[in-house]
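Friendly challenge for the regulars: who can give me the structure tokens for this chain first? No prize, just bragging rights.
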Amino acid sequence: MGVGKTTVGELVAKKLYRTFIDVDKEIETDFGMTIPEIFEQHGEPFFRDYEQKKTCSLAQEKLKVLSIGGGAFLNPDIRKACLDHCIVFYLDVAWEEWKERLNLLIDSRPILQSKNISEIEELFYKRQSAYAINHSKLSINHRSAEEVADFIVDSLKYAWELYEPNNV
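First reply, four minutes later:
Bragging rights claimed.
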């Protein structure tokens, strides 16, 4: 949450000439309301159920770049769908750096509202165990979105060269 998944995802998609899909934006379009409004009107369990169906479906689309919500990967079904059908990059950020972004995040993230700083820190670290299951981890501390996107693109291109079936 708040590490720049959407910004980086858009850059990666552009550099690879792929379609970018922000799952949260897709859900907002489906309902014609923001995520906080969906939480408020329907509740978190309803949102998480819909998020699971939407994400698992989108994860099966080939050659797309997806950005999923910060809490989505905690769901074992979403995690499995992403790991089975996608290349999952974990954009890791240190607590101290992430905490500096908090004032930009708190109003648009229902999960953070009405929590104090120690509860937010607990949530941050609680999610680390789910995020630790990935195909590639990249520390984004003190890196620009462009640098992160270039690293991901270079990694993918290198992997494709290594595993190209006709590569002798």
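Strands lie at 19-22, 64-67, 89-92, 136-139. Helices lie at 5-16, 23-31, 35-42, 44-59, 76-85, 95-105, 117-131, 145-163. Your move, everyone else.
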